[in-house]
Amino acid sequence: IAKEIYNLIAYQFEGSCFLANVREIAKREYGLVQLQETLLSEILGDSRSLKVGNVDRGINVIKYRLCSKRVLLILDDVDQSIQLETLAGELNWFGLGSRIIITTRDEKLLTNPPVELMYKVKELDHNEALQLFCWNAFKRDKPFDDYVELTERIIHYARGLPLALTVLGSDLHGRSINEWKSALDKYKRSPNKSIQGILIISYDGLDDNEKD
């Protein structure tokens, strides 16, 4: 959803940046610095690699270079407050009319400072999940007759997560039934890295009662 919004409205701003996979990149050594440098390079339209050296200097450069620019910034998959503090700590870091969109599984991160608008994405129900998966796997809204049972197994595996359904559907598109069976067994034994990452993130975002 965030990527679709970005593609639709980015042209309205002086500069824009979609920072994907903030959670994963921030885990790396100097990951936050890398994110700051990507943010600056994309918004300023500078193909050269901007080096900020450390997080504190990165904050100062962002505030100095972007405080008069109307920007669109999307921070995708944020899971720690330090990520927000180093990438978009205050609205006055950016020019008037700027928009900051944050995707996260932890609502508490959006309370300090409070966001203007919060939209909670729900897991898809069975019919919605079926249609999304089928459009990616079959390029139509229902499975071919021979694939009905396998489709149900895969939808159950994806747990109603839109991104997981999209990744799996695209991965299986154009494959034979035997290839589907083999792929499903492989997912369960040694999951596709993309889908496993999505499911792990989803599981980690649940509270203890939901996990049980």
UniProtKB/TrEMBL annotation:
Ranges for domain NB-ARC: 28-141
Biological process according to GO: defense response
InterPro entries: Apaf_helical, Disease_R_plants, NB-ARC, P-loop_NTPase
Gene Ontology MF terms in the entry: ADP binding
UniProt-recorded name of the protein: NBS-containing resistance-like protein
Species assigned in the record: Corylus avellana
